[in-house]
Specification:
With about 350 residues, this protein is α+β, with helices and mostly antiparallel strands. The protein contains ten helices and 15 strands. Acetyl coenzyme *A binds next to helix 2, helix 6 and helix 7.
Length: about 350
């Protein structure tokens, strides 16, 4: 059904953060596994991460981010047509978008979850744009949120040092075609590399009646082949950003801000170098949050906006990458005044 206000443009009009109250420093980790602040800082750039504390959940941090984004956009919850929650760690496997919808009172929206691991926010942004560009919806609330601490093996030093919990949100609204602020995008996936990063289900056969069996079990903690994921990111991320820039009729010289999934500072530095972008154009808050999966890009975006870094008109090259493997880039022109 095409809305009368059909328009082909989209713009981000508000952002927000949902930061859980627990803190886990590198020094804390050094008491749990054989590691050190020096090793973690040099190999990753992470100093601490936030963890959901008692009474907090994916719903509470997602709702907090949503409230802030709506306030900045000056949009009431009832005005939202569509709520997309990008997450791999829902409170409920049937979906957690609806619980956030209810928590914030987005009573007229349709809400659903989208799973694309650390690429979730970029995939969600492009999905949101499609609904707006067809004229189906005018106002979308996109939340990227993950509570990876639930699925980390806290005795595995090769992974437990990386991850944290967090949520970010943006309001995306329809604009005229001339004022379109999603300038280009490119999305990719490759299941052949899925074994490098998993939060997999493991079950065993159980007879329920006569000879009829079902498979029942549990999800197992995150496993990762760190070096392979690192090599993949450093090769594919500059490539996908270049393709998205090409679609936007831009080059890396036009980029004001490089905003990558906050996985590892060394990955961000290597990608910036390959795109010939100086370190001061890279948005990074990894030191304080670690890898928050689908939450990382909107969290860093909101922090940069509230710190007054982003100016209206700035070109932001975003890229998410992670399990799947999935990766993608969106080139956005910022339009909110600091
Ligand atoms: N503390 C101290 N030593 C450690 C630790 C630790 N926490 N972890 C591993 N080591 C040791 C290893 O055992 C190894 O020792 P050895 O040489 O005696 O065998 C040595 O340090 C080097 O280990 P590597 O795994 O080779 O270390 P590397 O330099 O590759 O860094 C890291 C590991 C940080 C995980 C890196 O590979 C990386 O960042 N990979 C990308 C991860 C990523 O970006 N994931 C994003 C996906 S997120 C998502 O989609 C959910």
């Amino acid at each position: 059904m095409r809305n009368e206000l059909y328009s082909a443009g989209i713009a981000i009009t508000g952002s927000g953060s949902g930061i859980p109250s627990g803190r886990l420093t590198n020094q804390d980790l050094a008491q749990m596994v054989e590691t050190s602040d020096e090793w973690i800082t040099t190999r990753t750039g992470i100093k601490q991460r936030c963890l959901t504390a008692s009474g907090e959940s994916l719903k509470t941090i997602g709702a907090q981010a949503a409230h802030q984004a709506l306030a900045m956009a000056q949009v009431a919850p009832e005005e939202i047509d569509l709520l997309i929650l990008a997450t791999s760690t829902p409170d409920d496997l049937f979906g957690s978008a609806v619980s956030i919808q209810t928590a914030i009172g987005a009573n007229h929206a349709v809400a659903f979850d989208l799973t694309a691991a650390c690429s979730g926010f970029v995939f969600g942004l492009v999905n949101s744009a499609q609904f707006i560009r067809t004229g189906a919806y005018q106002k979308v609330l996109l939340i990227g949120a993950d509570v990876l601490s639930r699925w980390v093996d806290w005795s595995d030093r090769s992974t437990c040092i990386l991850f944290g919990d967090g949520a970010g949100a943006v309001v995306i609204e329809a604009t005229s075609a001339e004022r379109d602020r999603l300038l280009g995008f490119e999305l990719c996936s490759d299941g052949q590399l899925s074994h490098t990063l998993n939060l997999g289900y493991h079950g065993s056969e159980k007879t329920i009646v006569d000879s009829i069996e079902v498979n029942q079990g549990h999800y197992q903690p995150i496993t990762m082949k760190g070096k392979e994921v690192y090599r993949f990111a450093v090769e594919k991320v500059p490539e996908v950003i270049s393709k998205a820039l090409f679609h936007a009729d831009l080059t890396s010289e036009d980029v004001d801000w490089l905003l990558l999934h906050q996985a590892n500072q060394r990955i961000m530095d290597a990608v910036a170098q390959r795109l010939s972008l100086p370190p001061e154009r890279v948005i990074s808050n990894l030191a304080n949050f670690g890898n928050t999966s689908a939450g990382s890009i909107p969290l860093a975006l909101d922090e940069a906006q509230r710190a007054g870094k982003l100016q209206s008109g700035d070109i932001i090259a975003m890229s998410g990458f992670g399990a799947g493997l999935t990766w993608g880039s969106a080139i956005v022109q910022w339009q909110i005044e600091p």
